[in-house]
Structure formats: C-alpha cells, structure tokens
Amino acid sequence: METPAEPLPALVASGLCNVYTREQFGTRALAYGRRDYYKISLTTGRGRYQYAHRGVLLEQPALVFSNPLIPYSWEPLSAEQGGYLCLFTEGFLAGNDPSVRLQESPLFRLGSEPIYLVDEAQYAALSPLFAQMLQLLQAGAAYQPEGVRHCLQQILERARHLPPPTTYYQPPHAAARITLLFQELLDRQFPITSSAHALQLRTPGDYARQLSVHVNHLNRAVREHTGKTTSVLLAERLVHEAKVLLVTTAWSTADIADVLGFAYPTYFNNFFKKHTGTTPSAIRSARV
C-alpha cells in the first residue's frame, strides 16, 4: 500500500492513469515498500533512491521507472524538487493490445536498470510529453486515453537510449532485501497448474541474473538470513512441489520432471531419491 506522502489516485480504483507535478510530492520522503502500479518519474533536485537491494544518489535530472513487484524508497536531499510523476497500470498502457507485457519490458522487468540520467536537452524533450499527458488527463469530457498512451510510448522509446547511473551503493539491510526478493521470485513460480508450464528460474544463477547481482553475492545474502544456501532452498522447494504434483495430479513422472526443469526423468528420479530417500513412484503409490 502506498504511503500518504505520495498520491494514491483514482487510477488504482479505475485501472487508468494519472500525472502529477513533483512540486506536489517530490519533497516528501517515501517509505521503503511496493506500490500497486507502475510509475515513471522525471526528476530534478537531489535525492537518494533505493530500489530493491541497491541505492543511487541522484544529483542531476533522471528518469526513474518503478515496478509494482519491486520495493523502493525516496529521500529528498534538496528543497527544490521538480519534474513529473506518471502513475499507470499495465491495463491502461495495453489498451486493446493484449501483447503488452510490462514485466518483459527492458525498462520494467526484474533485474533491469530502474534509473536513467538525462541531460538538459533530453530533459527538454521529455518534459513536454509529461505536460501533454497532464493536460490531456485534465480535459474532462474531452479526455482521449489514446493521446496519453502515445505520450507514454514515446517516453518509453526515448528511455531506451539514455545512460544508467554509473555508481550504485549497497543501502543498509541490502542482504535482507535481496533475500526477500529471492524468496518472492521463488514463490511466484508456484503453484504449477499445467503440464505445459515449466519453471523459468531453475538455478541460483538464474535468480542472480534476474536480480542483477553476482551469484556469490546472492548466496552469501541468502545464507546470512536463512542459514541455508540458495541451492538448498531451491532443492527443498522442488521436492515439496514434486510431492504435490505426484499426489494431486495424474501427470506422468516425465511430465513432472519436465515442468520442474529436469532435462531427463532419470535426473528427476535421482534428485528426488537423494533428497527424500524414496522414489517418485513410491510417493504416488502411497496416495492410494
């Protein structure tokens, strides 16, 4: 849930979009947490932005992309804060185009760079797009959502050519935060409800790439806060999900092995017996 320091507009209820000037809200700190919508901020003024397990000190104009799956916080460090905020849902941006998947966008997907620095000329090109969206959204009965979507799409296109910050820092409790993000990524892969659906993230390296950290850093953080290695947690979850599928579905062992990311059923059988002391077929027989 959004903090009172930032607008919680009608867009959350209506599934639409809204735009604000940062003079209204940019001078207030935002507590670390997730929001219910996507947000693009065009910022001026100094401030400290923390995104997932990383932080960056902003001392020049920037374009910031906030993802509802990733927690973030904002701490203003100067009295003057300018620019715009655009809050929207995936449904609004998609309109009638079901192919829009913001979680697959290079600007919003997990592990992407959330911040892009802009120079004076780039700010001058981006600012009118936000101003135009604000004007369109204030048009009342004459409101045209297609015009707002067009501006948003132009902003997204321009952002692809902007440089990210060169220096991030590790904020306090970064290890705890990255552990939480790892666990949330793991949880979101389950339950598996179709034999046509396979795990997208199977190894510690897969998770590290999604979180934009080195696998050794991920392993240290996870072990520090859970007492177990990343590999152990993944194995425990795979065993649990395998048991669920063996007991609750009629899928073949080969299908279960496939959806859980094993290249061959024999690999799955060996893995399962190693971690449980029994075989998949024995678990399935015991349910009768």
Automatic annotation (TrEMBL):
SMART domains: HTH_ARAC. The keyword Transmembrane helix does not apply. The keyword DNA-binding applies. Residues 176-286 form the HTH araC/xylS-type domain. It comes from the Bacteria. Pfam families: HTH_18 (PF12833). GO terms for molecular function: DNA-binding transcription factor activity; sequence-specific DNA binding. Keywords: DNA-binding, Transcription, Transcription regulation. InterPro entries: Homeodomain-like_sf, HTH_AraC. This is HTH araC/xylS-type domain-containing protein.
